[in-house]
């Protein structure tokens, strides 16, 4: 992650979020061990690390990162604004540092937040054993950093936009050279699409590329096989690139040869549902209501039972992030959320259609980051 990411500002936001926790969850500091969250807060990209961030009220010590000896030079380069501890057991090292800082400040008992969803039972048991030896109370917290990550800053949006542009360009190049055509296999098409993304600067593939032809297109998360693309098939392609650590996500569905009436029908319905979902995106919009805007189009057309997933999800340092957009979702869309809109219809044994874009939610209007046309394309 480049050093111009505002990591200090992100840690300040986390400190403020800790201050705002209800009394039952009040903490003096949080031990962040989820590596994605560590990267978000510090810029460190190693495979072993943790960071302690103090609540802003009465802070007794400095935010500190810990990693092991393999990353001594890397942590110095990537996190020059943070003191670093080099020790194999990073969580234990930071625990002791926090306890010592609190004790030296005369602050009394330490309440230390831990990321409950990111810790193994064994890791938590180890910290609990340490806590029992000291005047420390462990406070399990959930999604504290993930909630901050829902709102993307300008540099994050720039990185996601870059990843989306790579995906758009790669798909266009693949189609232009006849890479999606009868006689090719799903695996061949998937690998060629991934090559095109790497050729255009992708750091990595966002997830295992989905290429699903014919009846396989009715499986939402089909994995590519040696199935051969044939004239008359629907071909569903769901893929993404990583740029600067940030992901893109896009799905397009094509038809090989002239579409049958049923193929055009479900495509038109999904396209209308996707448009309704995009238009429902707004700052403060209820997440379940956004899902309903798209789902109602499919239900009203008589295909509700064949739409088997939620409308979308957040995208960023991970391919699936908060907020989730679905029928059972709670909460609202914040300004700066980057989300997907991806309704689908899946007819078992026949074929399916999904259309997906990545967009950023703004006060003005949602902005498309994936720009490949959505009209039904015959290949």
TrEMBL record:
Keywords: Hydrolase, Metal-binding. Signal peptide: none annotated. The keyword Magnesium does not apply. Coiled coil: none annotated. This is X-Pro dipeptidase. It comes from the Bacteria. Residues 16-151 form the Creatinase N-terminal domain. Residues 159-363 form the Peptidase M24 domain. GO terms for molecular function: aminopeptidase activity; metal ion binding; metalloexopeptidase activity. The keyword Hydrolase applies. Pfam families: Creatinase_N, Peptidase_M24. It comes from Gordonia phthalatica.
């Amino acid at each position: 992650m480049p050093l111009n990411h505002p990591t200090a500002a992100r840690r300040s936001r986390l400190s403020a979020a800790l201050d705002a926790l209800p009394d039952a969850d009040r903490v003096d500091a949080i031990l962040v061990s989820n590596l994605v969250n560590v990267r978000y807060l510090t810029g460190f990209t190693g495979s072993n690390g943790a960071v302690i961030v103090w609540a802003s009220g009465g802070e007794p010590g400095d935010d500190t990162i810990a990693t092991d000896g393999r990353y001594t030079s890397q942590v110095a380069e990537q996190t020059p604004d943070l003191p670093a501890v080099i020790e194999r057991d990073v969580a234990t090292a930071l625990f002791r540092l926090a306890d010592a800082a609190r004790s030296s400040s005369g602050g009394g008992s330490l309440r230390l937040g831990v990321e409950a969803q990111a810790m193994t039972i064994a890791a938590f048991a180890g910290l609990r054993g340490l806590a029992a030896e000291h005047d420390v109370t462990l406070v399990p917290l959930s999604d504290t950093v993930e909630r901050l990550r829902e709102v993307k800053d300008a540099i994050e949006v720039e990185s996601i936009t870059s990843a989306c542009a790579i995906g758009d360009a790669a798909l266009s190049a693949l189609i232009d050279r006849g890479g999606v055509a009868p006689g090719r296999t799903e695996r061949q098409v998937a690998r060629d699409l991934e090559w095109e993304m790497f050729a255009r600067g992708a750091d990595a593939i966002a997830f295992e590329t989905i290429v699903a032809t014919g009846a396989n297109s009715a499986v939402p998360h089909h994995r590519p096989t040696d199935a051969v693309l044939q004239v008359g098939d629907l071909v569903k392609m769901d893929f993404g690139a990583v740029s600067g650590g940030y992901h893109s996500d896009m799905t397009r569905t094509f038809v090989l040869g002239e579409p049958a009436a049923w193929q055009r029908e479900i495509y038109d319905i999904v396209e209308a549902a996707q448009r309704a979902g995009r238009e429902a995106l707004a700052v403060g919009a209820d997440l379940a209501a956004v899902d309903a805007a798209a789902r109602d189009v499919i239900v009203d057309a008589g295909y509700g039972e064949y739409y088997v997933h939620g409308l979308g999800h957040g995208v960023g340092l991970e391919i699936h992030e908060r907020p989730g957009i679905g029928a059972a979702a709670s909460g609202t869309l914040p300004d700066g959320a980057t989300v997907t809109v991806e309704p689908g219809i899946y007819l078992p044994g026949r074929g399916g259609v999904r259309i997906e874009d990545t967009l950023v939610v703004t006060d003005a209007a949602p902005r498309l980051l994936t720009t490949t046309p959505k009209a039904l394309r015959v290949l």
